Amino acid sequence: xxxxxxxxxxxxxxxxxxxxxxKEEHQVPVGVFRTWVKYVETGQFPDTRRxxxxxxxxxxxxxxxxxxxxxxxxxxxxxxxxxxDNQRCIGCKSCMQACPYDALYIxxxxxxxxxxxxxxxxxxxxxEPACVIVCPxxxxxxxxxxxxxxxxxxxxxxxxxxxxxxxxxxxxxxHYVGIHPDLLQPAQLAKQNGFLWADRREMPTTSGxxxxxxxxxxxxxxxxxxxxxxxxxxxxxxxxxxGALLVAAILMGIFGLQGSVVNVISPxxxxxxxxxxxxxxxxxxxxxxxxxxxxxxxxLRSWLVLGGYILMIYGALAAAWxxxxxxxxxxxxxxxxxxxxxxxGTAGYSAFLFAQARGRDFWRHKWFFCWQLLVQAFxxxxxxxxxxxxxxxxxxxxxxxxxxxxxxxxxxxxxxxVELVLPRRxxxxxxxxxxxxSGAAGRRFWVAAVILGLLCPLVLTVLPNAVHxxxxxxxxxxxxxxxxxxxxxLRAGQSAPLS
Length: 499
Ligand code: SF4
Description:
The chain is an alpha+beta fold. The protein has helices at about 15-25, 65-70, 95-100, 120-125, 130-135, 150-160, 230-255, 260-285, 295, 305-330, 335-355, 365-390, 395-420, 425-435, 440-460, 470-495, and strands spanning about 5-10, 35-45, 45-55, 75, 80-85, 105, 115, 140-145, 160, 175, 215-220. The strands form 4 sheets. A 4-stranded mixed sheet has the order 8-1-10-9, with helices on one face. A 3-stranded antiparallel sheet has the order 3-2-11, with helices on one face. Strands 4-5 form a two-stranded antiparallel sheet. Bound molecules: iron/sulfur cluster (SF4). Iron/sulfur cluster binds near residues 59, 64, 82, 101 and 170.
């Protein structure tokens, strides 16, 4: 059995009765929606036409929200319904990044994720979902898609139907009849400053400019970006944490450096930064009181869980390194090697977490992103150790660190060029790239992340006979630029509309 919906837009009159019935059935708070009706308009006055799109969870057969959910809060029932258990949800919002359809929201009362659950409680009592019952034109049908004798099975067998974003490979079980194709391509729609009856809360700035011939979005519900500065700061502190010991291992192995910088300062910085990283992750949860569910109810397919384990092991290795450094003035090679491996894992695992966010095409180049995170970790580690070594008046360390900082800045500049020329395959990716380099984020990207944060430190480190102070300024600028890069790159990935 595979429960699914068919929605016939040749019958839909855009009355919102389904939205209201759903709100009543599930006590959905004001401002969030399990199902909603979007309006777009086509044509040029007086020859215009309005089209409706009833949007909600697609109860995907291959649901990315289930894969990424770290605590099995989202799950697929044996009848095909994708349901959720808000008693397990920690409010990490990763499901909102994974779903390509904007189907999930955070319930402002419980601070946990919620969405259409096919009115599973009604199905169990042989009743149809509330939206099906209330629809005045019988445009919404629910039933077993595997049963050709059911109403839904019969429509799918006899009519042309379409699903949203089939290229995502999620195998949606919500089939549309007669929906306007532009309702299925949100990144293509022309945005206006306001909707029919309201101003927009966030005005996307990089879509095609308003053009009467383009399909225009005239009514929708608001969807804000789930991840903000705390996740950008988490990426930043994680780069510092990983880089501190990666760079220390190189200083010991290649430059033969010993002493307090590598034995004590580096692991101390790594420990502080890894603790800050974990604190930011917990602070960003909508239910921080449930953070330990990552240990007690883990989904081992979620990179949020795997990344959490990597961070914990890395923290323990940094503590061991620090203990040996303080107590014995030297660190065993086994600890250095193990810490270097887990430092690389700490830097790079986020690439796999972001790639699980199937809703965000811009983040899905996981191998390139993993390499980018490793380079960023080297840069952040070298920069933070330059600052510490200057404080300790350790010129030997500063000279070696300057070479590492310069090399990582060169690699970061090459990565930036690749980022700019990397072919973007989908509308959403192109939308996000425009947002980053020429849209709302463009000025801050070029000034803070590229000129001040990359090119200036690069010039300062390659200056012949540069004084240590110049290397110190370069290090501070590199850390400043890295934060802006993470923040704007994160915002760009979430800039393209999903619905
Ligand atoms: Fe529903 Fe989105 Fe999950 Fe698919 S990915 S089952 S549409 S919440």
